[in-house]
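F.,

This is the one I mentioned.
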């Protein structure tokens, strides 16, 4: 529970405002779409866009924060977050890949061009898994 309090704190929201320049960022008291993600060996996540209008508050979701919790993660195990450039109609090219190492965070806009996913299957040993926390503002 402490983790969610920190992720929804005014101090973090102010930091995110300073990083993004987006005025009026708020936490989501419903944590809709937020949560712990667990991807064992062989799993993957198709490239996709997150929805931008919150189904309860009807406010626009502006940014997505993902924090990785994988101590000892080896790059060759994959599980990279892939961020692509493009339009709603077509992904054009991969902009970057983020290795899911412990305490690494990815912060990106939630919009109609924010293509992201984990298209390559995770190749970690059976006793490991790609773990992360995701939250929206």
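My design for it:
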């Amino acid at each position: 529970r402490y983790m969610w309090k920190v992720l929804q704190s005014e101090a973090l929201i102010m930091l995110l405002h300073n990083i993004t320049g987006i005025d009026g960022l708020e936490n989501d008291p419903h944590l809709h779409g937020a949560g712990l993600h667990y991807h064992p060996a062989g799993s993957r996540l198709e490239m996709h866009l997150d929805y931008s209008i919150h189904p309860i508050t009807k406010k626009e979701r502006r940014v997505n924060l993902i924090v990785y919790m994988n101590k000892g993660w080896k790059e060759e195990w994959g599980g990279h977050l892939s961020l692509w450039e493009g339009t709603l109609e077509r992904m054009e090219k991969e902009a970057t890949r983020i290795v899911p190492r412990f305490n690494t965070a990815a912060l990106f806009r939630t919009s109609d061009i924010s293509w992201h996913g984990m298209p390559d299957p995770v190749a970690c040993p059976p006793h490991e898994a790609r773990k992360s926390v995701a939250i929206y503002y």
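Residues 10-20 form the longest helix (11 residues).

Talk soon.
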